[in-house]
């Protein structure tokens, strides 16, 4: 149970910076959905529980994408998504239950959902249930990038992949390509230890217990594997795993926390020394920066630095609208945020949009305008 607001907690100074970056506010114009409005309401509820009905709090707590943009710009370091997650934890509703079952049952549920998606095809409008299912089907790869020369990785210690839930269940080709690239860099990855979900989306949904279990499982797997370097190719997994280093729930002492922080390594950071040949794309290549990649997005830095590719990376302010558990409770808002993204990117037939976040990719594939392809950048690497 969360403790009530304490006097020493930093206060909102009404600077308005969070208003400029909140994708939900931008897509709806509804001030009551803004970060500071949520913060005020949730703090008021901390001070005077019972002011709103449990159902109203559950509804309010559902209306956040947990993108973290507001907390990154807040000069007072106020963490709205954390406050939302605590409220969700206190008022778990059907959406949280369904999200826990969906994430926890990925191995059993997702392949069946993808088979159904293939059967139904991408029918209906953007974000329709059939299109969400169809988005789980692996799209045809695009051979755009071919590695030509590898510089041996200077830090070729023991290495394992953390593929993440989507790659493990539905995109095994991603792990295959990542393994081949690491091999080229001179670091043969060992078998993946018994990882589970990184836990980030469970935490955002207020499922603190499920997240704690995921964190404990992954830390135990890392220790059992000899504390190797952990290479990732999903921005949200990278974000979720990186958070362990500062999280007492992970049970890492100071030395282990520092080792963990060093260990988590985005694959794209290692690829900067690889020379790629680039096939001329048939249409525009766009890049979508996942919210959880933050300002120092290694995928963006690598992709935009590839001579001959240089995808249009936009201004990094767009959100796909997935929002984890939010899409279950407020699918209309989720769709509104996605629609704004596609409008801002002026996507048209023949465009290819690349990203490096499993969640963004499925949401973007489910909402893309006709003729716009969506792919992980690993889908575009030809390493056969
Ligand atoms: S986490 Fe994202 S969606 Fe939620 S209030 Fe902050 S900026 Fe808005
Ligand atoms: S950025 Fe922080 S201090 Fe500024 S208005 Fe938003 S919540 Fe308040």
Structure commentary:
By secondary structure, this protein is mainly alpha-helical. It folds into three domains: 17-91, no CATH class; 134-140 and 274-380, no CATH class; 149-269, Glutathione S-transferase Yfyf (Class Pi), Chain A, domain 2 (Up-down Bundle), CATH 1.20.1050. The chain is built from 20 helices and eight strands. A three-stranded parallel beta sheet has the order 2-3-4, with helices on both faces. Strands 6-7-8 form a three-stranded parallel beta sheet, with helices on both faces. α20 (358-367) links the parallel β7 and β8. α3 (35-47) crosses α6, α4 (54-62) packs antiparallel against α6 and α7 packs across α8 (106-120). The longest helix is centred in the middle third of the chain and has 17 residues, at 208-224. The N and C termini lie far apart (52 Å). Mean pLDDT is 91; it is low at 1-5. Bound molecules: iron/sulfur cluster (2 copies).
Task: Describe the secondary structure blueprint for this structure.
Elements lengths: L16 H5 L1 H6 L6 H13 L6 H9 L6 H5 L6 H11 L3 H11 L1 H15 L8 H6 L10 E5 L9 E4 L2 H5 L2 H13 L15 H5 L3 H17 L4 E4 L2 H8 L11 H10 E3 H4 L4 E4 L6 E3 L10 H7 L21 H4 L1 H15 L6 E4 L2 H10 L5 E4 L8
Parallel strand pairs: 2-3, 3-4, 6-7, 7-8
Antiparallel strand pairs: 1-5
Helix pairs in contact: 3-6, 4-6, 7-8
The structure holds iron/sulfur cluster (2 copies).
